[in-house]
Amino acid sequence: MARESFEFDGGQGQRLSGVIENPRGEPRGWAVFAHCFTCGSQSVGAVAISRSLAARGIGVLRFDFTGLGESEGAFGRDGIGGDIEDIKAAVRAMDESGRSVALLIGHSLGGAAVLHAAGDLDGVRAVTTLGAPADPAHVLHLLGDQRDTIESEGVAEVHIGGRPFNIHKGFIRGMENRPWRERIAALRKPLLVMHAPLDDIVEIENAAEIFLAAKHPKSFVSLDEADHLLSRRRDADWAAEVISAWSGRYLTAGNVGDEVERGVEPGEGVRTITQGSGFLSHVRAGRHSLIADEPANVGGSDQGPTPYDLLGAALGSCTGMTLAMYARHKQWSLEQTDVQVSHDRIHARDCEDCEKEEGKVDRFTRTIRIKGKLDSSQRQRLLEIADRCPVHRTLENEIRIETRLDEA
């Protein structure tokens, strides 16, 4: 994966600094990651989740909010309002660079910020929150005894996470009295709420409040034993895996996604859509969907099995089904059929029983493992039956492929 620096103008014109985690090959889609309160784009959770998503084909921009990390400006003046505008600016900058953002991910207060920003971003099609407070004012308890000083003097130094920050009275006002329930209810975009039950920074009740305020489609996934900062890599990787799977149907919608969603009527075969010059292909068979791709070393993004893998899977699954049907008919104790199929090409002259004498011949090697209380004669018979698999017969018979162009 290639990592690149990315700078852009924030919501108030200040220069913000970020990093784009680029996937190998054709990306499935693009996301913006909003970090937790005072954390920055280099926090463990931001880095781990962004890189893990990039490894799964989703490009991610993680950036520092105003006044944090390498970004210009002063932190602690405007509250969450400034963060919301920074997120919008980040999405616009990504869009202008040719990377249209379809997914917003927000961690902790960043989660509250993306919930408020997403409704104003037409291109964003899905939102994920991680350990987010329902009400942004939740973070004000971190000001402790200094809140009174801020209210009376207008500004005070507050230590948060071991670091000093100058917090202004405008920061408090920017957090208070936000119509968060109304904003979440008006979101009208797919929402994934992720929260750890044992989170001792932002209590799990916040996830319930967000979930209840949101309209469908919405989903909740427990982060199990993760801590608030997702400081363990395995927790961040698992969160990324869930986000990747959940967001897959939304990342390409309005492009190849809408086409695939229309599906294929039963009995009409399968349909595949390959976008642009990449290899990633979306496959639809009736109401079922999957993807195909090629490895990164040949220009793909390695997000799914190759076409030959799928052809091998057709042979292997057909073999297993054929043996199961035969064993059921014979009332044999067949517990499991494990079929491994590999594909290569060999010279025709090396094939003893091939009619073709020149060039190369495709070869599928099928290894069958059978579990069950079966004697040697029954196992041998099942081996013979494997050759009766319909896909096996199709591959060995003469095949004719007719191709036509759909002018529509």
TrEMBL record:
One of its GO terms (molecular function) is hydrolase activity. It holds the Pfam family Hydrolase_4. Residues 1-21 are annotated as: Disordered. The keyword Hydrolase applies. Keywords: Hydrolase. Gene3D superfamilies: 3.30.300.20, alpha/beta hydrolase. The keyword Hydrolase applies. Residues 26-122 form the Serine aminopeptidase S33 domain. This is Bifunctional alpha/beta hydrolase/OsmC family protein. It comes from Natronospira bacteriovora.
